[in-house]
Amino acid sequence: MTMPKQSLPRIGMLYLDHVLRFFDKSNFQGWPDKIEQVVYHWGNDKQRFIDEVKRKKIDVLIGNVPATAYETFREIARALPQVRFIPTLDTQFSNKSKENVTHFCHKYQLPIPKTKIFYQVEEALAYINNTQYPKIVKRSYGPSNYGGYFVHKVDSAEEAVRLFAEKRYYPAYIQDFVPMKADIRVMLVGHQPVCAFWRRPPEGEWLTNTSQGGSMDYQNVPEEVLELAVRASKAANAEYWACDIAVSTEDDYTILECATAFAAFPYIRDWIGQYLMWLLAPQRFDKPYFAHKNWEELGKIDSSLLRTMRHIRFGQASHSTDTGEYAPADEQYSLLETRHVRGEEWPSEAWNFQDMHRVAGANPYSGKAQRADVIEPRPTQSEQLESRLDTGIEDFREVRARAADCYSQSGVKSETKPGAKSDSGVGQLPEPEELVIFFQSVKGIGKVLSQEIVDTLGVSGVLHALEHEPQQLTAFRNLKQKKLEAILRCWEENELIC
Questions:
Q1: Of 34, 102, 344, 374, which is least surrounded by CB within 10 A?
Q2: Is residue 235 part of a domain?
């Protein structure tokens, strides 16, 4: 008698407009059933998204949620209690902001640089004026520093106050400066390290990002670093995970970043797909095997080839005991099954400090107990825009409305009549031609590429990318990290025309 095959859960890929896709169907090679796609369109799209998931009878939604949609997807997950999110919103808690990384590490006693987070301006300024320097100031909101662009070293109270007056980062996220030899990124699948590499700063510098001139190599990653990354992955109950760990000049290890959203070669995303298929259907798929420290050999391959290599698999060696020797013990870092836990560890009602403390309006640092010798710079148009966008706004229509207010106040020319409304009922955004001119004004960005960016993303998509997801611009041909940094500098320092 033939036993009926056990049915498989229905998988849906979670995508968002204007956000680079981490997974593709090809990462789940061998899954026999149709894999659905569900796209979140921002704005007032929550209920439509929920209804589509229900209509397609999806059991498992797989994909990362960007910081700007995190709180919305908290609500979506609550409205879909029978749907399993991979990673869970609790696992993705650290994706949203640096402050969330700090809360996560404090709870699980994971080592991080000494960090202060301030939601009240008076408290931040009091600390700035009385602490020891140097310090590191980071933009808290969002999971990535985009090549170190939103990380700043300040050597005095005057520098710190000036930085906050210019950048308007909220909350004030301030860390002790850790003199580093390097940092190490560790990527894990099922709590097993599958890739790790050093990032070393250029001589005389402190940023380790390769876009800032840093170098990288894959050899001799300390076991203590791998063990720390495993501890963090287990604490987050993460199916896949990445940690950036600082190595101080005294060989102390502290976590700088950790998240499920990270840059990874396609073959690593394939490995995650293999793992998730086994996790969801162990009766149909074998447990994958990842050779320990495989990165030491794969890292010798040119990166241009690594970017195209797919579906790499390892055979597990067997050991004969014919001569009486013992077979080697299991690998130190085993591939483990992550547990599916219902309920919430990090409910927004308790942990969304950013929105609970946010104060709307102009620069909160203006005229507040600043040192007498600090002159507050006049905010540029882009800084006015950032002051409204860098506070964790969830509703994309509100982002568009606030951006439109900034542009209308700055007097940017538009053929639209004053006070005109867009179809969504909010103030008019800048014209596409104005954004094309902006991109063309950046060295190395020609008219064809400028037009392609605006045509592909649209005005609202371009504004969203510039303020919250800059890295997605590198998906366009011939737009690499150096050009991205030039775009961001122009956007940060000047008005529409750089």
A1: 34
A2: no
The two tokens of residue 119 are: 């939601």
Q: Tens of pLDDT along 18-69?
A: 888 999 999 999 999 999 999 999 888 999 999 999 999 999 999 999 988 9
Confidence tier at 418 by pLDDT (50, 70, 90): very low
Q: Decide if 34 is inside a domain.
A: yes
Residue 13, phi then psi, degrees to nearest 5: -85, 125
Name the band, by pLDDT with cuts 50, 70 and 90, for residue 142: low
Q: Domain boundary at 75, 90, 105, which?
A: 90
What tokens were used for 67?
């910081």
The CA distance from 156 to 145, in Å, is 22
Q: What is the pTM of this model?
A: 0.74
Over the stretch 226-236, which tens digit does the pLDDT of each residue have? 999 999 999 99
Whole-angstrom distance, CA of residue 114 vs CA of residue 136: 10
Residue 30: left (phi > 0), alpha (psi -120 to 50), or beta? Answer: left
Residues 6+ apart with CB under 8 A from 318: none
**What are the residues whose beta carbons fall under 8 Å from the beta carbon of 416, sequence distance 6 or more?**
428, 431
End-to-end CA separation in angstroms for the chain = 74
CA separation, residue 477 to residues 122, 450, 466, 472, 496 (Å): 46, 11, 17, 11, 23
Domain stop point among 64, 90, 116: 90
- CB–CB of 348/74 below 8 Å? yes
361 band by pLDDT with thresholds 50, 70 and 90: low
- Residue 11 phi/psi, 5-degree rounding, is -95, 140
Give the integer Cα–Cα distance in Å for 288 and 43. 40
Look at residues 141, 143, 100, 99 and name the one whose alpha carbon lies nearest to residue 118. Answer: 99
